[in-house]
Each structure stands twice: as C-alpha cells, then as structure tokens.
Amino acid sequence: MRACCLVLLVLGTAAKAQFPNQNADLILQGGEIYTPSGWAEALAITDGVIVAVGNAATVSGLRGASTEVIDLAGATVLPGLHDMHVHPQGGGGGRQQCQFPQGSSLEIVQSTLGGCVSERSSGEWIIGGQWDSASIGSPPHRSMLDAVAPDNPVVLTDISGHSAWANSAALEIAGITAGTANPQGGVIERDADGIATGVLRESAAGLVRGRVPPPDPGQALDSLSYSLNLMLSHGITTITDAVIDEGSMRAYAELADQGVLKQRVRGCIVWRPGGDQISTTPDPSSPLARANLYRRDRFSPDCVKLLLDGVPTDGHTAAMLDPYADATLEDDERSRGILMLPQETLNETLIALDAQGFAVKMHAAGDAAVRAGLDAIAAARQANGFSGILHDVGHNSFVHMSDIERARSIGATFEMSPYIWYPNPIIPDISRAIGPERMQRWIPVKDALDAGVLTVPGSDWPVVAEVNPWIGIETLVTRQAPGGGGEQLGEPISLEQAIDMFTVNAARQMGNSNRTGRIVPGLLADVIVIDRNPFEIPITEVHETQVLKVLIEGEIVYGETMP
Ligand SMILES: [Zn+2]
Which of 161, 472, 514, 520 is deepest in the core (most CB within 10 A)? Predict the structure, then answer.
C-alpha cells in the first residue's frame, strides 16, 4: 500500500516537473497586453497559470496540437479588476424592490410608492429606495409615505444606505414610540413634540429593517448570482463583499459547491457593539466562529467589518474632527457627528481580530472616524507586532493630512469608495453639511497615493447606481461626470495609477500579490479582454469600455466568442 502511494507521489511530482516545457492550454495573441514591463503581443496559459508573456514568436513556441489559440484581433488585455467594497446581495435584491431613480422629488417617490402599493396586498412589507433630503425638498416625514401607503409597512433606504425612512405602519410594527430611546450608534429623528418623524439613522434603521421578513434562500441565491454575473460582464474578477452574515456565507458556499462561483470573493462579517464577544470567548454559534464551515477555494470569509461612523450628509452621522458647517446650537451634541465605538473598545477589537487572523475593514467616512480607525490599527501593531494582515480604513470621504502621512508606517490601507468621485446627487447634501473648504479634498485619493499609502477602490454598489468599474477608472482621472464636462472635483490621479488601484494594489491589499493583479509569468491567469486600449483613447471614453472576455485561472467565464 505504502509502495503504491509512494510511486503515485513520484509520478505526480514527475508530471509537474515537466510543467515549464509542456504545451500551453491556451494562447492569446494578436493584441495589446498590459504588463508591468510594457506592452506584449501574446500570452500563454497552462493549468490556469500564465506561463509566458511576450512577442508572438516566443509564445508560439508553447503551441502544441491541443493548444487553443485565440486571436485577439487587436483587442487589449488587462489583469482582472477588483471591486474592494460591494454589496452583491443588496444590488441583486434591489430588482424586486420598490425603486425610484436617485435624485427623485417627493412627487416621484410618492407616485412610485403608490404603484408599488397597488401591486401588493394590504399589510405586505414594501422596501425600496433611494431618497435624499435635498431632492425631497424638505426633511422626509412618515406622513408623506402614509398619504400613499396607509396600510402597508414601508421602509425606504436613502442614497447613502445609512438612513431609513419609515411610514407609521412600519414604526408601529417596530414598536417605536415617543418613549423609545435612541439605540447605541443610532438616532431616531423626532419632531418638536418628540414624536418619531420616520427617519432613522444608522443602527436605529435596524429597529425597522430587523422586522422585514428575510428573502427566502432561493431568492438570496438568485440575487447573488445575478450580481456576480453582472460584475463579471464588467471585468471584475475579485470582490470584497463588505457586509456578510451567515445567510450570505451559506449562499456563497452553495454557489461555490455548484461550480458557479467564479470570482475570488473575500467576505467581511459585520460586527456591531454588543454582538459576538470578539475579545474574550467567541460565541460558538456566531458567524465569526463558523466562518471556516463556509470557506471555499473562491470564497474566504476572512474579514470583519466594523462601522465607526455614518455619512457626512444632512444626518450628520459621519464623525468629524471639526463641527459640521451647518451645525446649529440645538444640534450641539451631534455637531461633530457620531463615533459609534468608543476608542478603547475599537482598539481591543482590532487587537483581538488581528491576533485571530481576520482582516478588518472599517467604515469611516469622517476624518475623526478615520483617525480612530488608524489609532486602532496602530494599537494592534503595538500589541501584536506586524501580523502581515493589511487592515483597511474604508470610504475616507475626509482624511486629515497628518493621518494620510502616518497610514503607511502602521501598515494601514485606504479603500476609497464609493465610485462617486464625480459630481452626483449626494454631493449637494454633503457640500452643504461640510462646507466648501473641506470639499476641496473630498475622497483624497491623490494625497494618499502621493504619500505611498496602499490605496484600493470600491464601488459600494448599490449605494451608487452602477457597479461598472470603467466609470470609476475614468472619473478617478477626470473627477468630472462620466464623459467629461461640468464641475470638476479635486484629487485627480493618472490613468496608470487608477488601473493599478483596481489590479495590483487590490491584489496586494488582499495578500494575493503572488497570485493575481499583474500579467507576468507564474501568476494565475485572471485576465480580461476589452474592446479599446484606455491609454490610446480620450480619457472621457473610458467609461464606455466593453468587456469582451473574462478569464479566471485560465477558464473563460464570460464572453465565448470574439468579434
Ligand atoms: Zn458599503
């Protein structure tokens, strides 16, 4: 028995030893291939690994009788793109919801909601979005929803995803009365009489959302597959799902077991104060303790998401170092926003998660929250030494220059999201709350790159309407609306820097530098074929890029035929 296995082992080794000389499974040739050392003509792949990149003559040496050859016909090949902050379940689930376009007026919200009411039976929950106060024209109030939906509980998410607008029926089901105290990390907005207006900020939104029946497992799988396919069609080969729970871990594992999960997925398990006891003995029934049950080759639930603050809109929930520009005296308590975790709790949590091997992604929009996140990473390095895990401060709408300067030295990374690096309906809201001066450095991508901080991009879809990374790449460079024109924001970077953010930087952030992110021999063949070379066209046309083919580990997972 032992002898037999030894022989098999030796044979196995021998077969692998021939590997560099064996014929390629697939050759892509006749195109423009983006590599760290310049443009190449051809690329050869064996067993999912890039085995050669170079001119056509060199690569054709690996061509054998069984080698498949794809003529690129002048198309461009880039490394597969990463979206480092996305909510696929929510993005796909939105299709069944009551949705109106971002920037909708009250009239449009009400007429859309009226239509949704007519399609549902009395008492059935209606969920949807996405509203913003500036477009509604006045602070949203439950009575505006009651007028068209008196008999259905309604909860509508705002454009940032951080506030909910509920009608009276929903507030009643959630048991929210004048006597209900604000939950930790949340605000129940109230009128002059102390009665809830229906607007619920941050964790307070959970009081109502927690009462909405969850989608059935079939629906959850359907939403997830829809989103993963949509992202593949845009050339996204690796994602970080920024909020997962046990249900979504089960869904990813099931898709992986069915062989339909193609992307590399990192999942971040959301943790809130009062949840699992991270620092002492983890609850064995918690998602954190159960993560390895759901781990698969393409799915790693190895990240924890912490919410440090909210959003810098009229709700003033992002934690700022200096008061909001439109803070009033009555508003004193919230004039600098909300930091949701005391620094000491945050530090203890970071130290414990780092020691347990989890990467931490922190939601931090305001500069005070970013500082708190960096302080916590510094505390983990101090306590544990450098674990090799790159923890991530995410969003970074506002970051103090001194914090950008120290991020690199503590091994912290910045995830810049969402893809609204250009004028968008949420900006007037933010600009009014923050004031024009601080808006100059809104999402300071350039400052971060100039300081040498590892910086990666996230769409935060469906917080933004489009998961399309080509819009993100273009607008990181132009800081104008897709296609150019109109107002221009600050902090523009180069096209090369933008593509690096989506490829090599992102791979490095995930600890995958030796596997993906660049087109070089030895790395896995996660590559995309696109219809134009972004370096050879006007930058304002990059957002129209069409993806022709996507390969993950050498397997063609999108686009079967070439034009
Ligand atoms: Zn998000």
Answer: 472
205 C-alpha vs ligand 1 centroid, how far in Å?
15
Report the pLDDT value the prediction gives residue 315, as an integer from 0 to 100: 79
Q: What residues have CB less than 8 Å from 182, skipping those under 6 apart?
A: 188, 204
Higher pLDDT among residues 330 and 454, named by residue: 454
What is the Å distance from ligand 1's center to 532 Cα?
A: 30
pTM for the whole thing?
0.86
Q: Measured in angstroms, how far is the CA atom of residue 23 from the centroid of ligand 1?
A: 44
Q: How far is the CA of 94 from the centre of ligand 1 (A)?
A: 15
- Angle between helix axes 367-384 and 343-356 (nearest 10 degrees) is 50
Angle between helices 246-257 and 287-294 in degrees, nearest 10: 0
The encoded tokens of residue 268 equal: 């971040």
Q: How confident is the model at residue 563 (pLDDT cuts 50, 70, 90)?
A: very low
Task: Identify which of 391, 429, 426 has the alpha carbon closest to the alpha carbon of residue 411.
Answer: 391
Mean pLDDT across the stretch 528-542? 97
Distance 427 CA to ligand 1 centre (A): 17
From 398, 542, 402, 418, select the one nearest 482 (Cα to Cα).
542
**Residue 7 pLDDT greater than 70, yes or no:** no
Close Cβ partners of 66 (under 8 Å, ≥ 6 residues apart) = 23, 25
Distance 209 CA to ligand 1 centre (A): 16
In the block, tokens 């759901």 appear at 294
What pLDDT shows up at residue 292?
Answer: 94
Question: Ligand 1 mean position to 207 CA, how many Å?
Answer: 19
For ligand 1, the distance from its centroid to the CA atom of residue 491, given in whole angstroms, is 22
382 alpha carbon – ligand 1 mean position (Å): 29
- For residue 92, the CA-to-ligand 1 centroid distance in Å is 14
CB 363 within 8 A of CB 307: yes
